[in-house]
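Subject: sequence -> structure tokens, single chain

Hey, anyone have a minute? Need the predicted structure for the following. Not urgent.
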Amino acid sequence: MAYIATTLSNLVHQTAFFNLTVGNYIMIVVALVFLYLAIAKEYEPLLLVPIAFGMLLVNIYPDIMAEYGEGGAGGGLLYYFYKLDEWAILPSLIFMGVGALTDFGPLIANPKSFLLGAAAQFGIFAAYFGAIAMGFNDKAAAAISIIGGADGPTSIFLATKLGQTALLGPIAVAAYSYMSLVPIIQPPIMRLLTTEEQRKIKMGQLRPVTKLEKILFPIVVTIVVALILPTTAPLVGMLMLGNLFRESGVVRQLADTASNALMYIVVIILGTSVGATTSAEAFLNTDTLKIVALGLIAFCFGTAAGVLFGQLMRILTKGAVNPLIGSAGVSAVPMAARVSQKVGAEADPTNFLLMHAMGPNVAGVIGTAVAAGTFMAVFGVF
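Reply:
Had a minute. Here:
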């Protein structure tokens, strides 16, 4: 009987109930809320489901993310997933998939879209100075500020490159959360900064883009950007490689793999590993609250800056530009462009802004990567 009692006692004490803290239970509830938003409300489920499940796993069984063994020779399952984030492999592969999925034609047809994409990066630099004012050091502030671009992979890439792995969980979760909440956060700002008449503005047909232009674009952008900011090569290079797969027409198998099977595999690994960085010990602190607040401020500032620059272009073009497309300058592709379309269609159901908004949206992806490369150059990180 003593043997049975000891065995049962050991089994009971091996359950998670005896090891979890109040913080773990709080994070489990947060994970369940995220799962509800992803499944019931369909807020970017491809992102939120793996993130929320990784959050759930690490707060029930922390060793799934632990590093152990002599000299860090081993670790839990998600520890190995996380190392791919640290080595900047997964963010770069995500960019390749985005490039293979995205038509750069609207940006090529209307190069002025680059200005709208650049304007939306204002939120990044506003958040940078705000983070410094809140007491973060310069590298931490830079890593946090990229949330303003609504770009999860770039946020992870820069945080690891700048050695801010302690803040990676809050930064990544904030970035992906705001990406998911684009349809909720952006419309009120867009309506506040535009009139109904302005939202009804119909833009002219974009010029046709030749196949040669589409092939040359990723090659030229890679050469120019990588020569000026070599540190952007992993992100911009993979983005343009994926797009070259798409546009060249001679490697359809590679384009299909990059935009489908590989992309979804990377999303699973990246999402669960990001979620697994949110253990209660790492996540429940004042720095996390500051990061979440700064991310929201940065995202709102970026959206507002894009719309205001759109207003300037509307004035300069005598009403030919709908300022709503400026909000798509954040790099959440293609969500931000869809929001521009949706808000414009609410004012006039016959208004079709999607293709016009895709130009600033693609420019925003490039702009956020350039902003990350600029920070790396400033801090001497390669």
